[in-house]
Amino acid sequence: MKILYLSPMSIAGGGQRHAQVFSDGMREKGHDVEIVFTRIGHRGCMFHFLLRDRVVDDLCYRYDDPTYPGDMGRHIDTQQHDYLMVDNDERLPEIWAHSSRLQSGACKVVFVIHTENKPESQLRSLTGKIWKLICVSHKIADRFKWAHPVVIHNNVPRPASIGINVRQFMHIPADAFVIGYMGRLDGNKDPEFLLKIARDNDWWVLIVGKGPIAVPVSMTPRVRIFPNEVAMPGDWYSAMNVYVLPSRSEGFPLAPIEALKSLTSVAMTPTSDFPDVFNEFRSVRFFEHGNLIDAREKIESLEADHPLDNLQRHPSDCMVERYCEVMEI
Predict the structure, then answer these.
(1) Percentage of the chain lying above the pLDDT 70 cut
(2) What is the CATH number for 172?
(3) What does the buried/exposed string (b/e) look like for 180-197 if buried means 16 or more CB atoms within 10 Å of the residue's CB?
(4) For the chain, what is the domain count?
(5) pLDDT per residue as tens digits for the range 178-206
(6) What stretch of H or E contains 180?
């Protein structure tokens, strides 16, 4: 089977990690996968680099180009793709108009929704063009019941490591208690909350990712920020005692799963389906968004836990198997 995956960005993010895990898994099963990053990014960034052997360079980052829909439609026809995997593309109707394979049903559209913020009006405009709608959580799917979505929870294998001693590299004491965050730095993720949690404790803070973040001068000695994308994140998760995700909202975030598989405990807000899937894990605690006291108590309760307890309930290979089942391949 030939699959074309359209993903909006090639900078670090859950959608891009999903593209990597999905395409790696499908290729292992013998399917041909091509990827086009449609909007933001550049050829030197992490996911473009990691997936360079399957990225269609000539079509990348052309979302605002007036020739983008026609070129994409013709590419689907000339390459004879069987499936078009779409992660948030408002120009799908224009692509559809330029592809005989899409119009005839020879190339089926599988639309994946990763975020709660997807406007319902946009999805309704695609009625009749989407073959299967997939949501990464039941919380998201509840918004689109009328479209009969299928829920497939995100998953990842254990993150790759190269053996770097991150604490030594970032000048963090080996015996320090470290809370950390890795990912996009924006208001919804609220990584500055980690600074507030650690303020009245002797905890260190390790933040990995790009974006603005204000660090109080009083905390500077115990805060380490690595403002870059990390291609081999396992060593960075392992440098943290607890991975903290204080998000206001999430689809089904991948970073907490990566942290657990790196033997790091997780404290996070009860977003998405995480409480249902991970509530009984001794290595996971949920705290109320913005509640410093609750967050501190939950983090302190994690110190003696074991991150791999019960993780077999969310096995790393189930996501791709489920996609194959839903896509009937």
Answers:
(1) 95
(2) 3.40.50.2000
(3) bbbbbbeeebbbbbbbbb
(4) 2
(5) 999 998 888 888 999 999 999 888 899 99
(6) strand 178-182
